[in-house]
Amino acid sequence: MARPLSLDRGRPLLAPSLLAADPLAMARSIDGLSGEADCLHVDVMDGRYVPNISYGPSLVRALRKRYPDEILDVHLMVEEPERHVDDFAEAGADYLTVHVEATSHLHRLLTCVRDLGCHPGVTLNPGTPIESVRPILHLVDLVLVMSVNPGFGGQSFLPEVLSKTRTLCQWRAADGLSFLVEMDGGLGLKNVAEAVSDGCDVLVAGSSVFGAADPLAALRQLRVAALGGVLHGRA
Ligand code: DX5
Ligand code: ZN
């Protein structure tokens, strides 16, 4: 059964993105985080939905085998994700997040992901209106707000997406729902506090962690900075 992410008194969760880790030294990169990450973010790209190609279920399976207790947050940037969710569930994903733009049958797909034993997540690109996910919010455990156009690490944060997280938090409260709000792309020391104060629960960070000289120190600094958003924004 998939493991849940849990918010401890509003403390934001950190999800380092393995896309920015050295693919030939991924285990060393993960071990170097010394358990400081709340989950591992796995970016799956098919070269069609996004221009880039990354990895498939075999990486998820290998991560699950080597790290049985880690929460694997799998972000599917693929066309027709309904063709692949079984494989990723079987490989050991905990959260399986699909793009609203990539499937014609989102409602059915999210139900299927839950039936497979994973936490369903939905995500949307910066150019996609937040209203596109409202009809299925009761079906998901996580909404991922893309803060860059998906496909590559190391891009600049798009601040205009912050209004989406504020809207999501309002809808969540109004409808009595409990999904987590995650943000992905261009996050670092400069902007995590703002993201948290605008409602983000889970922060994905690739290059600001694994691109740092000391990834563990960078992750700890991000946590401190993110906590600043709790103090100054929501509480
Ligand atoms: C982008 C991916 C991100 C990426 C983030 O398409 O979904 O998860 O790894 O990388 P940074 O943090 O470098 O923007
Ligand atoms: Zn991602």
CATH superfamily: Aldolase class I
Main sheet summary: 8 strands, parallel
Instruction: Using the 3D structure, state the CATH architecture.
Output: Alpha-Beta Barrel
Radius of gyration, CA atoms, in whole angstroms: 16 Å
Instruction: Please report the distance between the alpha carbons of the first and last residues.
Output: 31 Å
Here the CATH topology equals TIM Barrel
Question: In short, what is this structure?
Answer:
This protein is of the alpha/beta class. Helix content is 32%, strand content 17%.
Supply the key terms.
8 helices; 235 residues; 17% strand; globular; 8 strands; binds D-xylitol-5-phosphate; TIM Barrel; alpha/beta; binds zinc ion
What would you note in describing this structure?
The protein has a single domain, classed as Aldolase class I (TIM Barrel, Alpha-Beta Barrel). Helix content is 32%, strand content 17%. The chain has eight helices and eight strands. An eight-stranded parallel β-sheet has the order 1-8-7-6-5-4-3-2. The mean pLDDT is 97. Bound molecules: D-xylitol-5-phosphate and zinc ion.
Strands, helices and their partners?
Elements: E1 13-16, H1 26-31, E2 40-45, H2 57-66, E3 72-77, H3 85-91, E4 95-99, H4 106-115, E5 119-124, E6 142-146, H5 162-175, E7 180-184, H6 192-197, E8 202-205, H7 207-210, H8 215-232
Parallel strand pairs: 1-8, 2-3, 3-4, 4-5, 5-6, 6-7, 7-8
Helix pairs in contact: 2-3
